[in-house]
Specification:
Layout: E1 5-9, H1 15-34, H2 36-46, H3 49-57, E2 61-66, E3 69-79, E4 82-90, H4 99-109, E5 117-123, H5 127-135, E6 139-144, E7 154-160
Parallel strand pairs: 4-5
Antiparallel strand pairs: 1-2, 2-3, 3-4, 5-7, 6-7
Helix pairs in contact: 1-2, 1-3
């Protein structure tokens, strides 16, 4: 029996589950790439209830559910007038099954009508993310070096949107 997956915009009552998802999966994802301390700092900085609640309130968070369990989270926002993907994470058991592209499509569908591109940033050491975004049509733009820790270098990519 195949799991039914639903993708939808997050609601205020999802905030606690989204935070738990981040606490459960982000450290394990980043620990081998940037170390335990930096991985936990990612959760503290980007997965706090206040931060998630604000993004949900703005309609910028998408969730994927299977059997009433959260299996994916994506978040978009704006930086300097550009639309940006800030998060796109899947439960490890749901990777490689088309859920990442589906979450990305949902984010794109939620963009303002005048958006002509979508940017994404990821850690340079996160090669899996880079490969995913390349497959999805995002092209390399630049790398922002971290002055202290090269493992924290940020790669920016951009997807040109074709709008009707």
């Amino acid at each position: 029996m195949r799991d039914e997956i639903s993708i939808r915009s997050a609601r205020p009552d999802d905030v606690e589950r989204i935070c738990r998802f981040g606490a459960a999966h982000i450290p394990d994802h980043y620990r081998p790439l940037i170390g335990s301390e930096a991985a936990l700092a990612q959760v503290d900085r980007w997965w706090s209830a206040d931060r998630i609640a604000q993004a949900v309130e703005r309609g910028q968070v998408t969730v994927a559910e299977s059997n009433d369990q959260l299996v994916g989270v994506a978040e978009r926002g704006e930086l300097g007038g550009s639309q940006v993907v800030w998060k796109l994470y899947l439960h490890p058991e749901h990777r490689g099954k088309g859920l990442g592209p589906a979450l990305l499509r949902h984010l794109i569908d939620q963009l303002p009508a005048d958006a002509r591109s979508l940017e994404v940033e990821h850690l340079e050491v996160n090669r899996r993310a880079g490969e995913f975004y390349e497959r999805e049509g995002f092209r390399y733009v630049r790398t922002e070096p971290d002055p202290v820790n090269p493992a924290m270098n940020i790669v920016w990519r951009e997807l040109k949107l074709v709008r009707d």
